[in-house]
Amino acid sequence: MFIDLNDLEGPARYKLLTATIVPRPIAWIVSRDAHGATNVAPFSFFNVMSGDPPLICVGIGVRGNAPKDTARNIAERGEFTVSLVSAPLAARMNVTAVDFPAGVDESLEAGLVLSPSRSISVPWVAQSPVAFECRVHELIRIDRRTLVVAGVTAMHVRDELVADRDNLYLDGPGMDLLARLHNPGWYCRPQAAFQMPQMTLAQWEALKLSGEADRYLEQDLT
């Protein structure tokens, strides 16, 4: 089946892309407007884009014909936090996705505890296993939407999730993070993991030389 996205309306494009590009991590963004009012909202058009420099990217849509509060706050203040959502926090995250009127503090509605950041003036969700303090690197306007590229200035990781402090190894499965799937409202959590070390060029050439390359390609490494 060939699908030309140019022939489709926006909702249909969204449906297809969100059904296939999965799972998507959830950026639980805390932002503040110029007057200090706090907003908390989840976004799944999100991922890490670079480790050095440490950059994340978040795509924020619109509400009607106006920018969402999060996009406006980030543009005004130039900083925000991203907290990751663990499975026990799913219901609280879902409440912050409600289309509240402007001025409502979602953190109070969802019973969230907000902790002060160290490097910026916007707090983070204290119940989250991991959170990032972020400063805007660039705002890219695409139609009415905003693509936020931000530098991560600091991280907060729950102590029990640090597996090896010296080597900076974290307990990924212990975070029990949620991710978005297809709409409407489908999520997933980590399944059984498997390890697949990246091959060197010499190892791949050795497989081809030994005649084992095809067997390697056809095996199910999971």
UniProtKB/TrEMBL annotation:
Keyword Flavoprotein attributed: yes
* Superkingdom of the organism of origin: Bacteria
Q: Which SMART domains would you find in this protein's record?
A: Flavin_Reduct
Transmembrane as a keyword of this entry, yes or no, is no
Domain called Flavin reductase like: residue spans: 19-176
The cofactors required by this protein are:
FMN
The cross-references to Pfam families, in alphabetical order and at most eight, read: Flavin_Reduct
Q: Which InterPro entries match?
A: Flavin_Rdtase-like_dom (IPR002563), Split_barrel_FMN-bd (IPR012349)
Output the Gene Ontology terms for molecular function. Answer: FMN binding; oxidoreductase activity, acting on the CH-NH group of donors, NAD or NADP as acceptor
Keyword terms of this UniProt record: Flavoprotein, FMN
Gene3D superfamilies cross-referenced by the UniProt entry: Electron Transport, Fmn-binding Protein, Chain A
Tell me which family the UniProt entry assigns to this protein.
Answer: Belongs to the flavoredoxin family.
Which PANTHER family does the protein's record reference? FLAVIN REDUCTASE LIKE DOMAIN-CONTAINING PROTEIN (PTHR33798:SF5), FLAVOPROTEIN OXYGENASE (PTHR33798)
Q: What is this protein called?
A: Flavin reductase like domain-containing protein
Which source organism does the UniProt entry give? Answer: Achromobacter agilis
